[in-house]
Amino acid sequence: MRRLFLPDISSKAYIRVLRTALKAQLFQLNNNDNMSTLEVKRLTFSYKKTRGAVFRDFNMELSPGHIYGLLGANGTGKSTMLYLMSGLLTPQSGLVTYNGTDVRKRLPGTMREIFIVPDEFELPNVTLKHYIETNRMFYPRFSEEDMNTYLDVFNTHTDAKLSELSLGQRKKIFMSFAMATHTRVLLMDEPTNGLDILSKEQFRTFLTKGRNEESIFVVATHQVKDIEAVLDRIIMIDGTRIIAETDADSIRKDGKIDLEQYYKDTLKSKENNHEQ
């Protein structure tokens, strides 16, 4: 599992980078605001220390207005795909584009529209207030009002020291910030890990309310039960390929099966076919 280390936001060099990025973002804000797709095109990727490709000639297209469930067993590449979509990993061949732009270029106008919430991450040794004030400039649509609403529901305060929080508390804070940025693309890796039952319900509510016709939400998980109620598109992957892709309502419509059972049945069918 990759762990995301966030930069030292108190350094002068980092502040200069932020200011430069902000100017570029504001310049492009009104020039690139149409609904856009996130496309994975003939992508091949492998880690140097492992044999075999995680993805090989992989294709996928995600459209605005949906909450996608990227489902699969542990080790099938869900987290890796999110890092590739965000431009934090580089494929050996192929590419990922958002609004026609290669995300590997990490252009400010593209990066302001993509936010990733990894399963594991480290936060700097600063207060939440400091973190918000320094990082909000990356995201022109950031809403302080929404941020405060999320924090109130999660019973979290801006004077909290980030490095002293539990995994669940850090998850709540980072998810609150992610939702408040109002980026067009929100990538979430196992977002319910570390959350209690009430917090999981609150997370589902926030996700449903935050959805709009311009946004692409991707939830990568193997804990389908936690998030099945909010998903409307299902993509199941098995390392190098998509093994199932469907509309969630088509599974729910007859009431005979829920998404979790569909997930289990699909995995079981795949295992049986492999044995044969």
From TrEMBL:
Domain ABC transporter: 38-264
Keyword set includes Nucleotide-binding: yes
Keyword Transmembrane: no
Gene Ontology molecular functions: ATP binding; ATP hydrolysis activity
One Pfam family recorded for the sequence: ABC_tran
Keywords of this entry: ATP-binding, Nucleotide-binding, Transport
Protein name listed in UniProt: ABC transporter, ATP-binding protein
Lineage summary: Bacteria, Pseudomonadati, Bacteroidota, Bacteroidia, Bacteroidales
